[in-house]
Amino acid sequence: MKLNLSSLPGTLKQSGTAIYSNTVTPHVLRGLRQNMNRPRNKYGVTTGDDSHTENGNVFFYILLAIVLLAALTYAVSNDRDGSTNIFTDEQAKIAAQEIIEYGSIIANAVNKLQLRGCLDTEISFENQLGNYTNASAPADKSCHVFDLAGGGALWKQSSDAWRTTPGNVWTPWFNGETSVVNVGSSESELTLYLPQLKYIICEKINESVNGVSPSPETITAQTVAFDGTYPNLADDIGDDAGNVHAGVTTACKDDGGGAGTYYQVLIAR
Questions:
Q1: pTM of the model
Q2: What is the DSSP annotation of 132-144?
Q3: What's 252's DSSP letter?
Q4: Residue among 208, 221, 220 nearest 248 (CA)
Q5: Which of 39, 78, 171, 179 is least crowded, fewest Cβ atoms below 10 Å from its Cβ?
């Protein structure tokens, strides 16, 4: 049914503008009346109750915030415990740089002790874990690498995320059983090792120090932690066929199986 506007008392107006249509349906009329009765701001714009829409928007944003927070918590947790096995190219570069810098810090600390008058047999790598006790080191710890009275270097453990088999944090290994071909004499060197590194980190280390790919190298396992003495020479680095590490004091060798070992000669003998 249609109603004639002429039958209405007065002319309907909306926001001061006359409605000139002659007829309207009941549905349109109800809408017009509702709109006329809605509150308006100082600009004449209606400010009706849109609570249902607003409540829906608020709920959506709360849900989105919860999802994002959960994703962030998961990512941070994985990063802290090293549980993720995905290692990007950029992460490998950062890890390689950190390893190289730490090797340089230890080498500089050892050099500092030698300049102070410490014999290589007096140098101690004793740390808070109680390893590497050297009975020949001075009691005042003036030849201790990881002591303020000595070299002043900071003892650090490698990140579990760097390793091919995460699960246990691997500490630096200081050893005097291996010689590097064309470095010093034929005697074994005092060397810092960091084994079981992911191959991509090994690649980035070598790109930084010598620009060559890690070379396969098999050496006899070193079993004696440095205590001021040099056991019988176990093996050489750089003597395998096609090896590129001869004469190189800092590099990462390919151990096979997607793993590598970083080494830094601290004292060439």
A1: 0.64
A2: ---TTS-TT-TTB
A3: E
A4: 208
A5: 39
